[in-house]
Amino acid sequence: MPVLLLGAAEIRRLAADLDVTPTKKLGQNFVVDANTVRKIVHAARVTASDRVVEIGPGLGSLTLAILETGASVVAVEIDHRLAERLPVTAAAHDVPADRLTVIDADALRVTELPGEPEVLVANLPYNVSVPVLLHFLESFPYLQRGVVMVQAEVGERLAAPPGSKVYGAPSVKAAWYGSWRLAGTVSRQVFWPVPNVDSVLVGFDRDAEPRGTEEHRLRTFRIVDAAFQQRRKMLRQALSGVLGGTAAEASARLEAAGVDPTLRGEQLTVDDYARIAGAS
Ligand code: SAM
Description:
- By secondary structure, the chain is an alpha/beta fold.
- It is built from eleven helices and nine strands.
- It has two domains: about 200 residues, Rossmann fold, CATH 3.40.50.150; about 70 residues, Helicase, Ruva Protein, domain 3 (Orthogonal Bundle), CATH 1.10.8.100.
- Helix 3 links the parallel strand 2 and strand 3.
- The chain is elongated.
- The chain starts with 7 loop residues before the first helix and ends with a helix.
């Protein structure tokens, strides 16, 4: 049985060989611990028949752990040197070439994925984690589930229920696509370099049916943004700009959607927002 996973020494050797100094700009904190990458793959319930997409494979530690299950991987990496080296690393670890496709691109701009992967697994670049997640969920309807590692505050926000202190626009937008849960914590010590923030795993499962059309989604997201831009205000004030122009008009629209106009944005579910957008 070949040893697939990268050890800490090999990761540093690879980086030195490529002359890669991890940059903050690209959120480059590489996992150097085999147990952590196996834990992520386990949390994502990856099996041999899965087609997985990974955002930001970096030097390949998580990629090899996914490949170890027998699954196939499409990996999107923005750093050319890393994208170029990944197939070489996989081949050196006895991965058949047809199980890994590397796309050398900015994940925020990718519009199609070969093989229509149904699982997302990633240690996301922290500076773009929410936009990249929302972009993937919107662009690739075949993505059914996933587990991603993100900064703890972001993970808590994505999985937050209405009414909680950290519930915000990203929570509602993520919920548009499906259900989210916290799926474990990760020590800072498993990264190189060690980041100055904590990390968590978040899992999601897409809803069986899409919640609405693209037009409905855009209307809903505009209302969500307005509600949280002024989160201390009652909805009839916070939404007056996007629902008719005056507080009285906004109140009438909210009431038509069955929502109390004196509530605040943080008290509403995604269903409430979708109803308001449907009634506007
Ligand atoms: N998966 C690797 C690991 O766990 O060791 C690396 C994770 S590191 C947190 C984030 C990776 O995402 C880096 O390899 C970085 O170059 C890449 N990256 C950053 N921004 C990106 C973007 N917009 N599109 C694709 N990859 C990106």
